[in-house]
Design a protein that fits this description.
The complex is a heterodimer. Chain A is mostly helical. By secondary structure, chain B is α/β, with parallel strands linked by helices. In chain B, helix 3 crosses helix 4 and helix 4 crosses helix 5. The chains are: A mainly alpha, B alpha/beta. Chains A and B meet through helix 8 and helix 9 of A and helix 2 and helix 3 of B.
């Protein structure tokens, strides 16, 4: 066991920086973090908009809800592998390149935002209607309700949704290898699968599992920290 | 303080059938500084009435006047400002879990844009007023049902509203907590002179704290008035609910007479009735009854078993004369037929 480990640790394929698993880890983390920042920034307002416009009495607002809901559903039903290829002209127009991590991040964000928005919408739906109405009866404006009730009351759930989305995005980054994004997924495919370097597959899988476990741990701990609801055993 | 003028609310039927009339021409005037009870079964229109009072629901027609402002005519910012004149207390308190007790109490002030220092002073005052000292930094999950409702009441009072509107404030609480909360409400009315409206289905709540009571049935007011008048009126629909008659006793070898007093100027207690029976050479025993003291006055519904002193059944003429004298004095009395 120790011998295998020592052999791997001295294996130049695994320890070298350029094109090695450590550099790939950084690329994966970079894509994930930036994608998630954009996803929360765009997805949370979108989730709130979906929640707030649902069941409105105004036909205009209802139409908005239906149109946005439809676009979200269409984007969510795209297999990511197809989406990233279909978006190549778009990413090329925005970043100037159709390959690389930055190009991949555009596709990742477009896939993650609708996914996260639906989860955020569900988180908001879990708030008892009476609590929202109570604050409206105090004379709160719509904006005050969003800031003082919807976001703080749904925060434990929102953090859970961000965690779930982050883990999904880490999975998507593997497929982003198809546009030469770099990262662990591409490494495992190019070197491990097509290059017959089995050690590379094992190492990348171990690294991905470790990242996912850490993200989940961090997310759960953060959610518990902000959760003041009564715990039912 | 609150005037409802032919308030009507009609909801379109969900399936396209007949529209549902939730409130059907409500006329009601509630005096300032008193505790008003509004009772009715579920579906009577109580919730719709609250939603109209707070402007969450627009009436189909009629006026809703709170402290001289027609709530139904307001929109947007003006409505939000008017809502601050009404403090709300809910059955399940509806506190925000993300806020501590103190932050929940401060919430209406935050919405109204009161500066932080002033907010903190007011919260400290309220925490003491409702008896929550020491628990103000706890989250609702760490408080008991009674404490949660105290926070709810303090929050309702925070913006110094003219009216405290309580929607089933004790229906989720146990008996002794209910009494504590009701005592707090009547205590607050006395200290702050605030107008209180309690919507409830519990007659005990009405008996304990209300000055007036209004019965809502199928969206209409079927009885309204001062608690004593309503309870003492033996013909009104509320009297039997406020002063319920226990099940009639069985196996009594005597004539049983039902008496409702409370409306009578001459007879104030059950003993008065028993003494009257003695003047008819009869012995009266109390076999069942409910006696309540409302506004310092006894109101009772009792069943008396009557026997002749000698142990024989009393005569028909004697009974008729006894009943007639009771009726003349304002007691509703009649023989219970088995």
């Amino acid at each position: 066991m120790i011998e295998i480990l020592q052999e791997w640790l001295s294996n130049p394929l695994l320890t070298r920086w350029d094109g090695g698993p450590w550099q790939a880890t950084l690329v994966t983390l970079y894509m994930t973090v930036v994608t998630m920042l954009l996803t929360v920034l765009l997805g949370l307002p979108l989730g709130i908009a979906l929640f707030e416009t649902e069941g409105s009495t105004s036909p205009l607002v209802r139409t908005f809800n239906q149109v946005v809901g439809f676009v979200v559903n269409v984007l969510r039903s795209f297999p990511f592998f197809i989406l990233i290829i279909a978006l190549i002209p778009v990413t090329a127009a925005i970043t100037g390149r159709s390959t690389g991590p930055n190009a991949a991040m555009i596709a990742l964000t477009i896939a993650a935002v609708p996914f996260a928005a639906r989860l955020f919408e569900l988180n908001l739906r879990e708030i008892p209607a009476g609590k929202i109405e109570a604050v409206r009866m105090m004379g709160a404006s719509r904006w005050q309700v969003i800031r003082q009730v919807l976001i703080p009351e749904a925060l434990p759930g929102i953090i859970g949704s961000i965690t779930t989305t982050t883990i999904a995005v880490i999975g998507y980054t593997a497929m982003a290898g198809s546009v030469n994004s770099g990262g662990l997924g591409q490494l495992a495919y190019n070197r491990g699968y097509t290059g017959y370097q089995t050690e590379m597959i094992i190492v990348t899988v171990i690294l991905l599992v470790a990242i996912v476990i850490l993200v989940q741990l961090l997310g759960s701990r953060l959610a518990r920290g902000v959760d003041h609801r009564a715990r039912t055993v | 303080m609150i005037t409802l003028d032919s308030l009507t609310k009609v909801f379109p039927a969900p399936g396209g059938g007949d529209p549902v009339v939730a409130l059907d021409g409500i006329d009601l005037h509630l005096e300032p500084g008193r505790v008003h009870g509004i009772v009715g079964r579920s579906g009577a229109g109580k919730s719709t009435l609250i939603r109209c009072l707070t402007g969450l629901e627009k009436p189909s027609s009629g006026r809703v006047e709170v402290d001289g402002t027609d709530i139904a005519a307001l929109e947007g910012a003006a409505l939000r400002t008017a809502r601050r004149n009404i403090g709300m207390v809910f059955q399940h308190a509806n506190l925000l879990d993300s806020r501590t007790a103190a932050q929940n109490i401060a919430h209406p002030l935050e919405i109204a844009g009161v500066p932080r220092a002033q907010r903190q002073r007011r919260v400290a005052e309220l925490v003491e007023l409702v008896g929550l000292t020491g628990r103000e930094h706890n989250h609702p999950a760490q408080l008991s049902g009674g404490q949660i409702q105290r926070v709810g009441i303090a929050r309702g009072l925070a913006a110094e509203p003219k009216v405290l509107l309580c929607d089933e404030p004790t229906s989720a609480l146990d008996g002794s907590t209910t009494r504590q909360i009701l005592r707090l409400i009547s205590d607050l009315r006395e200290r702050l002179g605030i107008t209180v409206v309690i919507i409830t289905h519990e007659m005990g709540v009405v008996r304990e704290v209300c000055d007036t009571v209004t019965l809502l049935q199928d969206g209409r007011i079927t009885q309204t008035g001062d608690l004593l008048d309503v309870a003492a009126d033996p013909h009104g629909p509320l009297s039997a609910e406020l002063i319920p008659l226990p099940p009639a006793p069985t196996g009594i070898d005597a004539l049983v007479v039902n008496c409702d007093y409370g409306n009578s100027e001459r007879f104030h207690t059950t003993d008065d009735l028993i003494r009257l029976a003695e003047t008819y050479e009869a012995e009266a025993t109390l076999v069942a009854g409910t006696i309540e003291t409302i506004g310092g006055r006894q109101v009772g519904r009792v069943q008396l078993a009557l026997r002749n002193r000698s142990g024989a059944a009393i005569s028909a003429e004697g009974l008729a004369a006894f009943l007639a004298e009771l009726e003349a004095a304002g007691v509703v009395a009649k023989e219970v037929t088995a």
